[in-house]
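@channel sequence for tomorrow's demo:
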Amino acid sequence: MPLINYEALDSSTDVTTTKTLLYEAIPLTGTIVSGTYSDENIKNFTHGMFQAVYDYPYLSSSANHIFDLTVGYSSNSAVSGSVSAVQESKKINMYNQFAQVLLGYTGSNNVVREFERDLTLDGVGKLQNTFMINFSRLITKDQIKKGSFSLIVGTGSWASPFEFVETLTDASASATAGTTNTLGGDYGVLYNTSNVTRGIVFYQAGIAILATGSWDSVTDFNSASAGTSSVTQTLASASISGSCDALRHRIKNISFNNTTEINSSIYFCRVPHNKYNYTSNPTYLSSSQIVVKSIGTDTPISYITTIGLYSSNNELLAIAKLSEPLRKDPSNEITLRVRLDY
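structure tokens (generated this afternoon):
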């Protein structure tokens, strides 16, 4: 067997940590969301509180969950209490659930904080009537990359929804600016090309909140048939699944970069000149002679093939294999860099 020698690692000089961010472009075309499979990739649930969108018919074994879509409004909204309200308690519950998880409560009377149009959380420009897009962890990974989110939505009539379109982006956000940290992580504001707020996106949570009132000029927002209801009116009078269908019918494209965070521990394994020059491998000797030496006075030679990381009790925790054996003799020293990713 090979010779095993233990070298203690100094945590201050021999060990360090790093973080690497990997990005992947995610395009979600409107054809997938609103029509390619005749809605066979849209799953509505008996509770009626949200619908799930898949990239293939959801009964297929190869289908991947893309996002969940729902609507909701605050109990303080002008829509609340409407005589035409449908599923009002569920819509209020959905709004409160998202707001509670992402923003938490106000400090004074433990009331759920409402979504807002800016980054100050000072009660200005509240978003009380909203669509919520909850992206799957499968596609967002650890978080949405700041400054990469884009949503193109049609604002034309029901018959020609993409006659007019509006592009929403978080272009003002970056890794170091343009975002605010809340209970649910960092979020950035979604602006249209006229720099008007249309919603917000929570990066770590992978959730986009869209303001329904932003498109109240759309007077034909009805998933069942063409009509005169504005988006906010439809939010009250239509079911949650009906409102979700109406929005999906108008999604032309969603794109962003996801982020995979790789944390690494790096160990610098130092091999001194006066160690690891021999091995107890039986093939190292022949008739009590070192086989790699032709003359007795030659310096000993060994070859390093494996590094083991051990606990303080000499318990083997990890093994690293070299791509090829490294020659070691008393005339050289080697530092081997071992990285553990997690």
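heads up for whoever presents: The longest strand covers residues 251-271.
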